[in-house]
Amino acid sequence: MSSDITLEQLKERLAALELENTQLKSELSSNSSNTKPAESSNTQTFEPSTSLTLEEYTRYGRQLTVSQFQSIPGQLSLKNSKILVIGAGGLGCPALLYLTGAGVGKIGIVDDDVVDISNVHRQVLHDTTRVGWFKAESAEWYLRRLNPNVDIQTYCYRLDPLNAFDIFQEYDLILDCTDSPHSRYLINDVACLTGKTIVSGSGVRTEGQLSILNFRNSGPCYRCFYPSPPPPNSVTSCKDGGVIGPVIGLVGVMMALEAIKVLTGWYTEETFKPFLGLYSGYDGLSQSWKCFKMRGKKKECIACGDASNEGKLTRELIQSGAIDYEVWCGVINYNVLKESERITAGQYADILGKFKEDGHVLLDVRPKEHFSIVHLPHSTSLPLDKLRRISDKAQLPFDTDKPVYTICRYGNDSQYATRYLNDTFGFDAKDVKGGLYKWSMDVDDKFPTY
Amino acid sequence: MSVNIKLEFLGGLDVIFNSERYHKVTVPSTNASTPLILRDLIKYIVDNMIKDPKDIEVFIENDTIRPGILTLINDTDWELEGEEEYVLESGDVISFTSTLHGG
Ligand SMILES: [Zn+2]
């Protein structure tokens, strides 16, 4: 009897080794062919599976036995699915982690960004040794070791109106893990026109949101919820607003679960109810999850509504570049100053030497949370939003007879502050180009960047 | 008749309301014969709760809730409830959440 078990174990081991062998071969052959769009269709054809390997029974055993997962048919649905994850950051990493672990057949990863050390507190597929790698390739490096059964395809460039349609057509489900309104509208429009469901997540600071959009072409889309974009100054990114790692991580993990539910048929056109989930990590002394019941598909929607709608989007229209998503979403224009109103970090160092610390005023216009991390010792904190509320010169909290200079993190808000000071009070203020970041790069390499 | 409403400012909107996410307010009636509607509540919020006039544009655009903010009536999208014409009842929970974009 014991010899029977040994034989079975040997067979299992043999099957696993054969699988590994196949995976390694395909990894080797596709090694250099996974970054250019033209080559993305050269990957091996995707044959639907009707059975699981012995290794897969064991690997997925713990989810197979959960009734909601729907056993072997559920696992086969995942195995025969192709999903596209756009953004391998704070949302994409945890979503990819669980979806690769769960055994989705093919996963595409789109991201043109590279790993920065400030990403790794939340972007859990990347690590300190892979700073500078393309995020998509760093994610792939980790995921191949996690589950060699999954076919990973990377796209190390930005999704745009020209390439989006061809990429989307290769996949069944889209995960929107991006970080700006203009990418979210582009993903939405292309998904509606190619008939793909989107699992959408977002988050900043201590809160996150979760939704399923264009569900099987019958649920509402992003434009049904948000027909017009928010004013650009109301949009906060993780870079500017900050984000707590586990908050965005939870949303990414929830996206993975929603993707599994969509792929295994947990929702149907009859049972699906449009929703928007809102997670708050710091809700008073507690954490909270609210799930709002949302509107259905809107007939007049230009992305998912009737084809006869005025302004209805089409593939041709989008690919022609007729819609400039960044302009439509009003990407902020930071060039608001004349060249004579600006100085470099090096020039400011000379001014500091000449006027000394008390012979001029350096206004640091970053939010107070940023100021408290690090600042130049002689600078005065006056956050931009606070400055803009002051219209009476007497209320300015600094000596207005001295020359005024403004500084911020990267030299964006300082331009607005200078514009405001010069226009409102007739000052001759100047901003430090590139902000504290350039100060650290060009003048004082001991000054921390964050 | 006045109505008691619980307000929620979510998704970072609390910054213009003293950094408090939850508020309980009593909206006084303006005219005994017409019931209070959501439009009256929005006007009440703008007139009584937003301290700095410069914060109004964070909340309102073209006389209505600005794009990028969702309004929920008892956890349901206001579009399903009649939007600004919704007739308020004491005990209603009205939530406003700005859309998050980061990822
Ligand atoms: Zn729509």
UniProtKB/TrEMBL annotation, chain A:
Give the residues the record marks as binding Zn(2+). Answer: 221, 224, 301, 304
Which Gene Ontology molecular-function terms are recorded?
Answer: adenylyltransferase activity; ATP binding; metal ion binding; thiosulfate-cyanide sulfurtransferase activity; URM1 activating enzyme activity
Can the keyword tRNA-binding be found in this entry's annotation? Answer: no
The record places domain Rhodanese at 356-448
Instruction: Tell me the residue numbers annotated for binding ATP.
Output: 90, 111, 135, 179-180
Q: Which GO terms describe its cellular component?
A: cytosol
Pathway connected to this protein: tRNA modification; 5-methoxycarbonylmethyl-2-thiouridine-tRNA biosynthesis
Report the subcellular localization: Cytoplasm, Cytosol
Q: What is its main location?
A: cytoplasm
Region feature (Disordered): 24-48
Q: Sorted alphabetically, which Gene3D superfamilies does this protein's record hold?
A: NAD(P)-binding Rossmann-like Domain, Rhodanese-like domain
User: Where in the sequence is the active site?
Assistant: 238, 408
Q: Which UniProt keywords apply?
A: ATP-binding, Cytoplasm, Metal-binding, Multifunctional enzyme, Nucleotide-binding, Nucleotidyltransferase, Transferase, tRNA processing, Ubl conjugation pathway, Zinc
Please report which protein family the annotation says this sequence is part of: In the N-terminal section; belongs to the HesA/MoeB/ThiF family. UBA4 subfamily.
The protein here is known as Needs CLA4 to survive protein 3
Q: What organism is the protein native to?
A: Wickerhamomyces pijperi
Automatic annotation (TrEMBL), chain B:
Localization:
Cytoplasm
Instruction: Check the record and name the Gene3D superfamilies matching this protein.
Output: 3.10.20.30
Q: Where is this cross-link: Glycyl lysine isopeptide (Gly-Lys) (interchain with K-? in acceptor proteins)?
A: 103
Q: Name one Pfam family in it.
A: Urm1
Location of 1-thioglycine modifications: 103
Main location (coarse class): cytoplasm
User: Pathway it belongs to?
Assistant: tRNA modification; 5-methoxycarbonylmethyl-2-thiouridine-tRNA biosynthesis
Q: Which UniProt keywords apply?
A: Cytoplasm, Isopeptide bond, tRNA processing, Ubl conjugation pathway
Q: Which CDD domains match?
A: Ubl_Urm1
User: What domain of life is recorded for the organism?
Assistant: Eukaryota
**InterPro entries registered for this protein in UniProt:** Beta-grasp_dom_sf, Mopterin_synth/thiamin_S_b, Urm1
GO CC, alphabetical: cytosol
For whether the record's keyword set contains tRNA processing, the answer is yes
Choose any GO biological process term that the UniProt entry carries and state it: tRNA thio-modification
Record note on modification: C-terminal thiocarboxylation occurs in 2 steps, it is first acyl-adenylated (-COAMP) via the hesA/moeB/thiF part of UBA4, then thiocarboxylated (-COSH) via the rhodanese domain of UBA4.
Q: Which family does it belong to?
A: Belongs to the URM1 family.
Q: What does this protein do?
A: Acts as a sulfur carrier required for 2-thiolation of mcm(5)S(2)U at tRNA wobble positions of cytosolic tRNA(Lys), tRNA(Glu) and tRNA(Gln). Serves as sulfur donor in tRNA 2-thiolation reaction by being thiocarboxylated (-COSH) at its C-terminus by the MOCS3 homolog UBA4. The sulfur is then transferred to tRNA to form 2-thiolation of mcm(5)S(2)U. Prior mcm(5) tRNA modification by the elongator complex is required for 2-thiolation. Also acts as a ubiquitin-like protein (UBL) that is covalently conjugated via an isopeptide bond to lysine residues of target proteins such as AHP1.
The name on file for this protein is: Ubiquitin-related modifier 1
**Taxonomic lineage of this organism?**
Eukaryota, Fungi, Dikarya, Ascomycota, Saccharomycotina
